[in-house]
Here is the input.
Amino acid sequence: MTSRYLLLASLLLLTGCTDYQWGWYVLDPTTTQGQTNIKFLLAGFNDTIKVSLLSMLFAMSLGLVVALPALSPLKYLRAINRIYVESVRSVPVLVLLLWVYYGMPTLLDISLNHFWAGVIALTIAESAFMAEVFRGGIQAISSGQHEAAESLGLNYWQKMRLVILPQAFRQILPPLGNQFVYILKMSSLVSVIGLSDLTRRANELVVNEYLPLEIYTFLVLEYLVLILLVSQGVRWLEKRIAVPSH
Here is the structure.
């Protein structure tokens, strides 16, 4: 409810409390020009959602792999984990994105398009945070659960897959939701390498129409709606998988 009031107040402020002459005709759904521009902007959802979902899935997989050495009794494995996590977290996402897009094809002598460069960069950047989320979730599971799994004769991988990770997932669902929101917002950076996401399309329309405030306001609303939907979905999933208290 609070978010609705804030949104309403923001719209009132933007439309009536300044001397700026708004050019909303550029996005007027009752005109041919407005319909064309709105369709052009909304088409950016396709690339934004695809690059975000794939990056999230790959980052979760890589993050889990990176997290497991942190739980090892072997010091050198824990050191490898810390080096990776601290190194990746220290690099700005935009810098990593540019390096992957321009540097990786040169080093590996491969062809890399805009889409997969964005996915790879966001996956690497997010995997370090995912590793910490998984590490915290696994460590939150009591030692009794580990002992119970071992008493049943389960090996390490069976114990993690059948006993520890399902319980840890319930613990880490809220931070996973936060990280997905983070990826959605960071996906706007892929516009700098030419991917036709929401931000790229808004930039292109600004060049054609010369009305940046109106178009970028619409862009803000697009991200706001998308992230609110994701947040509601995460809350719904939390309730579905929550363990009853009685």
